[in-house]
Request: fold
Amino acid sequence: MNLSINSNYAPAASVIKPHFIFGAIALLVLSLMIILADTTLLGAYFDSKIIAITHMAVLGWTIMIVFGALYQLIPVVFETSLYSEKLAKFTFWLSGFSVLFLTYSFWITDYTRLLPYAALLMFVSLLLFVINVILSYKSSQKKNISSRFVITAVIWLAITELIGTLIAFNFKFNFFADSHLHYLKIHASIGLIGWFLMLIIGIGSILIPMFFVSHQLDNKKLEKSYYLINFGLIAISINWFFIHQDFINPLFWLLIVIGIIFFISFVYDSYKKRIRKVLDVGMKHTMISIITIVLPVIVSLIIMIGFDLESTLLFRVSTLFGFTVIFGFVTTLILGQTYKTLPFIIWLEKYQALVGKTKTPMPRELYSEKIAHAHLYIYIFFIIFMILGILFKKIWLVRIGSYFLLLVAILYNINVFKMIFHKVKTIDKNE
Amino acid sequence: MNKAEITNFELEILELLKNVMDPEIEINIVDLGLIYEVNYDGDKKLDLVITFSTPACPLGDAIVSNIKEVIKQKYPDFTTNVEVVFEPLWSTELVSEEGKRILGL
Reply:
C-alpha cells in the first residue's frame, strides 16, 4: 500500500513557468537564426553560425523546457521533492544568461575573447542543475530503471559540458593533442546520446505508459536498452579519447542502436496495450518523434560506415545527423510534451483549490488544440523540406523550411502564452 | 440506520462521486474504476478506499481534494477519509461499461 503524494512534492509553478517562457521565446529566436544563417546551413557542420544555432537549439530551447519539465517530473520519477527550489531558480537565471552569451560568442565567431568565459558560465549553471538533481535522487524513495536512466543522463550532461568547456578553452590556450573537431564529435555524441536520448528514455518510460494508460509492460526491455546504450557510449568514448581504433566504432554504435530498438519496442508495447485509443495532440507529436529516431540512426550509420562520401556531402550528412536528432526527434517530442506538462502545471496552480467547489475547465481546455494541430502539420513540412534541402543542397527548400519553422514557433508561442496568462474561469455547475 | 439503508447511502455516494473527473483521462473516477470501497458508518463518517490509474499520478492530490469537496458540499457535517492504495493495482478490467464506451474499448 502506498499513498501517492506526488503533487505535494511538486515545486511551485514559479520555478517551472519561467523555463517554458524562455524556451518558447528561444524557439522563436532559433527560427530567426536559421533564416539569417541561410546558405551557411549547406556548408561545413562546424561553421560558427551552425554551432551557434545548435547551442541555441540545445541549450536555449530544449534544455530550458527539459529543465522546467524535469523539475515538475522529479516527484513523479523519483517520488521525492526537488532538493532546492532556490537553487533551481538561480540556475534558471544563470543558464539563461549563459546561453545567450554563449550563442552570441559563436554567432560573432569570438572564440578567444568571449567564448571561454561564456562556456565556463554555462558549465557552472549546468553543474548546479546536475547537483540539484543528484541530491534529489539521493533522497529518492524510488530507485528503478526509469530513475536510473534519468540520473545517468544527468551524469552524461556533466561530462558533455566538461568536454565542451575544454574545447572552448582550447581555442584560447591550445592544449589539445588532436584537432578540436575530434573533441567536438565526442562532445556532440555524448550530449545527444548520453544526455538527451537517455533522459528521454527515462522520462518517456514513465510518461508514455501513463498518458496511454497502459499497464503490464516489460521493463526488461528498458534494462537491456540501458546497458546497451551505456556500454556502447562508454566504449566508443574510450576509443575516441585513448585508443583511436576507428574501425571498431560501428560495432559500438550498433550496440547503441540495438539499445534504441529495445526502447522503441517498449513504446510499441505501450501503444498496443493502451486503453486511450484516441491520441491527443501531445501524444501525436510524441509518437512521430519516436518514429523519427530512425532518421538519425540511419544517418549515423552512413557516417560510421563512410561510403567514401566526398567531403562537402559528408559535411552536409553530418549536419543532417545533428538536425534529425535535435529537430526530428527531440524538438518534436518537446513540442508535444509541452501539452502534456504545462497545462497540468497551470491547472494545478489555478484550480487545485477550486476543484469540487465549482466546475473547472479541464487542463486540455487551457490551450488551443487547433493551433497545436496546425503547428504539428507545419512542423512535419519543415522537417521534410530541411532534410531534402540539406541533402540535395537546394537552398530554396531550406529557405521555405526555415519559414515553416518560424510559423511553428509563432503558433507554439501563442499557445504557451495562452496557458501562462490563463485567468481562472469557473463554470456555473448548472450550465 | 439498518444495513440496507447504509448500502443505499453508499450507492448514493458512489453516484455523487461521478461528478469527480480524472483531469487527464477526462472520465469520472467511478466509471474509471478508481473507487475500491465506500464505507459509511451510519452516522457522519465516510471511509473511501481509492486508487489512481498510475501510482505516479501527479494529479492524485487534486482528485482526493475533489472527492472531499464534492461530499462536503452535499453533506457539510460529514467527515470523509480517503485512503489511496495500489494493491490491487488498477487495470482496465475495473473500467465500467460506460467508461469503456467513452474510451472506445
